[in-house]
Amino acid sequence: MTHGMICAPQPEAVEAGALALKKGGNAVDAAITCALVQTVVDPQMCGIAGFGSLQVYLPGRGVHTMIDFHGRAPAKTTPEMWRDILEYEAEDGFGFILKGRVNDLGYQAVTTPGSLKAFHEALTRFGTLPWKDVIEPAAVLAGEGFMVRPHVHDFWTRKESFGLTDHIERLRLTPSGRRIYFDERGEVLQPGAILRNPDMARSLRRIASEGPEVFYQGAMAQEIAGDFAANGGLLSLEDLANVRTEETEPLWGDYRGHRIATNRPPGGGVMILQMLHILENFDLKAMGHNSADYIRVVSEAMKRATVDKDALVGDPRFVDIPLERLISRDYAREQAQAIERGEVVHVPRLQKGADIKDTTHISVVDEAGNAVSMTHSLGMSSGAITEGLGFMYNGCMTVFDPRPGRAGSLAPGKARFTAMSPTMVFKDDALRLVVGAPGGTFITMGNLQAILNTIDFGMSASDAVAAPRFCTTSDTIDVVNRIPHFVTEELEAKGYTIRRSYKSFNFAGVHAVEVRDGKWHGGADPGRDGMALEV
Fold it and tell me: Which CATH number among 1.10.540.10, 1.10.246.130, 1.10.3720.10, 3.90.550.10 corresponds to the domain 248-353+419-529?
């Protein structure tokens, strides 16, 4: 038996990961087992046809690496194919609304799916359990069924306010979706109902038996490619065969004597480091947690990182990113001085829109000091399900900029920027915190505040992820309803626009494991359905 702690937004997935540890598996075994179960029990937040970013730390083997598996635009993509049907941009900069919603719903919304390949590579390289054993818990839950959780049902029935397709329309797009997610009366399954997906169970067992090759090059790939061809999709058999992960060293930064390891572009780690380097120039503790001054200063750091991300950060294969400058101390000092002078930066947007938050996360630490932080997603799920396969495809084309000549513009083989930023914090070369989150562009802002809460304010992992959050990815400061009105009134008096959420917990779903005095402390975001579990 391996002792350890795992934290994620779904109880069934956390339990499966914990059982992998109890079987003697390591942190990687637990993380991949958990991830595969997540694709079953949170099937619009993530999937085997999704994408993501994985950080692996195995000190006993001298391994500390990032595995990037972002979705890439299919080969049929052209830079100008959607230029003339653009309507507006999401307010937080994480999506574009097109006429006919072709980038948002259906087969043209899908990029190359990298999740399954990354799961298999991580397990075979760094794990200890057999591939079949790691897949089986997910297959069992898909076939025997699981209870629909409140957060899943809330997500299915949530109305989109600014032009994106309502989630329920994604569920009913295909005959498979209507069969899986709706009851005999045509009503979407309610909380507590048992969702069974025998098609996905069969797919998972095919993949367990034949390996991921069946998905990318074998009979299942043929089925997928044929379905896309029949429905006007962009994804082809060649695209599937060409899917590759990319391994990189972590991107490093420093904050108040701690070393921060996060992912590289097209992931969001650069934003985490840029914001931390700016904020190190301020005595945040003296300002007081979530005081008006604190929120103003942190919000301005958030806005500056957002502006730079929108203009400069994308797929490094296609965009020359000034990475060293963005995380440099000199640049951070310049930005801090501007904030200190009271300068208010403007975040340009094409037009008011909506945010996209379909993602999930896993944080794991085991007794050998091994750790995994992984964020994976479907983006805004496409709704497309190939008959007989049971899983939904990602909808990552939504976020590419239809305007040519920009960092996020369309191009064949290009990955989109995502705020995914699985992060680890070290103190004196010892692991202190494993953190990550789902939540669209809110991800970096949620991760940032969890790190600040831990380092600057000495909070435990559970307190750090539960503390009231705010998020500033536009000219508006969004706050949860637990931030007092007297604080936001002071910000409004300074000229800031405040938007108060009706939710007590919002702006990403941060999940963390802290190592303190040789003990593990887990923090599962109370706004999601998950938990932290120690075995």
Answer: 1.10.246.130
